[in-house]
Amino acid sequence: MLAYTLLAEIGRIERFPNYKHLASYSLLAPRAYDSGEPAEEPPQGRHVGHVGRRTLKWAFIEAARGAVRHGGRWRQMYDRRTDGGQRNRNRGYIAVARELAHLVDIVWRKDVAYMEEPPPRPGLRRRTKRTRPGTGQPVAAMVGVAE
């Protein structure tokens, strides 16, 4: 249901130059990045904009709630933002929803399927273990064993 809502509310993805514009249109981007508060108090942040698609904001936040319940990197992002779910939970969901907007932009523009783990980068090879675990000594003996 959320996919259809995103499709209907966003329309053509090409009309947004990048994901930041999509996040702003979805009411998930702050109007200013400074807290505007004195340094002695904890920062309160700024409100998100008022001009945009409220239904799109709702859809991304509902998707963020499901992603946080699912776990993985979304839960880690939420826990970092909310100190393990102890405070500012709604701001944590908004941060995850903004990342989901970034993900939607990438998946939609490049026409690729979402993967939980990204594919390995080209040119990277996995190193084979040349030492015994925990010892730092080579697996094969460098000097022949006297019998």
Contiguous low-pLDDT stretches (5 residues minimum) are: none
Mean pLDDT: 80
Helix count from the secondary structure assignment? 5
State the domain count.
1
Radius of gyration over C-alpha positions, nearest whole angstrom: 23 Å
**SS content category:** mainly alpha
Which sequence of SSEs, written as H and E, runs from N to C?
Answer: HHHHH
* Shape assignment: elongated
Number of strand elements:
0
Strand fraction equals under 5%
The helix content, as a percent range, equals 40-55%
- The end-to-end distance, rounded to whole angstroms, is 73 Å
Largest beta-sheet characterization: none
What does this entry look like structurally?
The protein is elongated, with a radius of gyration of 23 Å. By secondary structure, it is mainly α. The protein is built from five helices and no strands. 20% of the residues are buried. The chain has one domain (2-110). Helix 3 (54-70) packs across helix 4. The mean pLDDT is 80. The protein is 44% helix and 0% strand. It has helices at residues 2-10, 19-25, 54-70, 73-82, 89-110.
